[in-house]
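Changelog entry

Holo records now carry the ligand SMILES as an explicit input line rather than a separate metadata file. Below, a converted record for pyridoxal-5'-phosphate, shown in the new format.
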Amino acid sequence: MTKKALLEIAHEHGTPVVVIDHDVIRANYAGFRKHLPKVQAYYAVKANPAPEIIRTLHEAGASFDVASFPEFLQVYENIKHEPAKLRQDYVWDKIIYANPIKPQETLLALDKYKPLITYDNPEELKKIKRYAPHAGLALRLRVPNTGSMVELSSKFGCEPGEASHLIQEAFRMGLVVEGLSFHVGSQCINADNYVQALNIAAAVMDEARGHGHELKILDIGGGFPVPYETQVDIFPQLASKINAEIDRHFAPDIEILAEPGRFLVATAATVVARIIGKAVRDGKRCYYINDGVYHTYSGILFDHCQYSVNAFKRGGTEICTVFGQTCDGMDTVTQSAELPKLEIDDLVYTEDIGAYSNASSTWFNGFPPAKVVHVNQ
Ligand SMILES: Cc1ncc(COP(=O)(O)O)c(C=O)c1O
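Structure line, unchanged by the conversion:
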């Protein structure tokens, strides 16, 4: 988005305002498909659950990864009017419920949709058998998350050595395991994580075949990296490695899917905020803005993400601190913003803030989440 367009939106809608550009979402989806042509993208709704984004990605041909029953319904409501809605496989083609741990009431509610769901332990299998016996299953494997910005392997995934037992156990209970899934950790810049994960998945599939169970689906999860700020765009290179490993290990009839979240939406949003206070502390200039880490910048806390704050004004810059609007000292957006001298009511902006940002915004201190404006829908 041009600075002029951002300023116009901020003047029309007020601040803080998150501007989401749907042309960028469509371009990110097209880039994903171009570099991973055999992989169906199931957008991880948790990254940014705006219904407008779900609609844009649905029109572009995406499917969806959901983490809760409300997310499941939000997607289902947006896609259910398709003519193909009566086909059972359409639900699987369009939605995977990829949170391996599900409350009993969620399983009960999900069962009538015969959904595709993940699991990674025997206790979950017992719950599924009791409350959602009509679901199709994907076993989540624990794989290396080395160097990823957000580590997930300590919370989810069975050890590869347990996989065969968990697959056989599911079939013994009368359930059906359709495939495998894994997640290499979010913002994964280490291609080796994918290489190792694909190796592990191939070995587990071979072992399952040896026991007479042909698995049909491989879900390679999310983690696809975004070129934040000065980082180079390593996605094309990463994708070609993934393609080569998929071709090496898996027969063409295995359905490959992925759950990109950040990759599809991070670069599509910019937030514009307003300076509401100024001070000099310990000799350093400090600005207070009407947003912060409990709001659009929540990714600093929950996503381990760093953001830079930029000024619309020009001029010689100095290193400043930017604080959020709440009374909490932790509400610090950055201690190293390079900003020109700004005044109260001047506007600042942060790019690439579309993932894990407004999705985890709170009402802390009574401040509402930023307004969201969609452009090029
Ligand atoms: C199960 C699952 N799938 C997909 C994602 C999306 O990951 P990313 O945003 O790194 O693509 C996550 C993120 O936490 C996840 O837990």
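Spot-checked after migration. The chain has a mean pLDDT of 95. Residues 44, 47, 65, 98, 152, 183, 186, 221-224, 259-263 surround pyridoxal-5'-phosphate (CB under 6 Å).
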